[in-house]
Design a protein that fits this description.
Layout (H helix, E strand, L loop, with lengths): L1 E14 L2 E5 L4 E7 L6 H13 L9 H4 L3 E5 L21 H17 L4 E3 L7 E15 L5
Helix pairs in contact: 1-3
């Protein structure tokens, strides 16, 4: 799994003119991509890592201050730009695999005590955020092996 985590003062996701996910106060925006070979273990470990990352003010973690988390599925995090000018999406897991793992990731965060908001899987989403710092972290669970 790949994630881009951004500390934000506000963030929201809109689909077809309707807000489907919004942070009620400052927290984290997580763009999440699922690749081939990812499974529940990666979802669990990544959720724990993000929930405990000390990237908020005063080196606190979201878990320390119960900061909300907005999760947005983003298969494009697995883009390959190695050849040509058109990205390849072949490294991204198909929707039938990705959607349950995105949901599992959210469930794992909630089990840790997080207030989780999300976008809508597979929809064209408009994501708005006000980055704080800015602090943006990239995590790829493949790097942990």
């Amino acid at each position: 799994m790949r994630a881009v985590i951004t500390r934000v003062t506000s963030a929201s996701v809109t689909v077809d003119g309707q807000v489907v996910g919004e942070l009620p106060r400052p927290g984290l925006l997580v763009l999440l991509g699922v690749g081939h070979g990812d499974g529940p273990d990666q979802a669990r470990a990544l959720a724990a890592k993000i929930w405990g990352l000390r990237i908020l003010a005063d080196e606190l973690a979201a878990s320390d201050v119960n900061a909300p988390v907005l999760v947005v599925s983003q298969f494009t995090l697995h883009a390959s730009t190695r050849k040509g000018r058109r990205p390849s999406w072949s490294r991204a897991a198909p929707g039938a695999v990705s959607e349950p793992l995105v949901e599992r990731f959210c469930t794992e965060l909630e089990a840790l005590g997080a207030e989780v908001h999300s976008g809508r899987f597979g929809a064209h989403m408009e994501v708005a955020s006000v980055n704080d710092g800015p602090i943006t972290i990239w995590i790829d669970t493949d790097d942990w092996q």
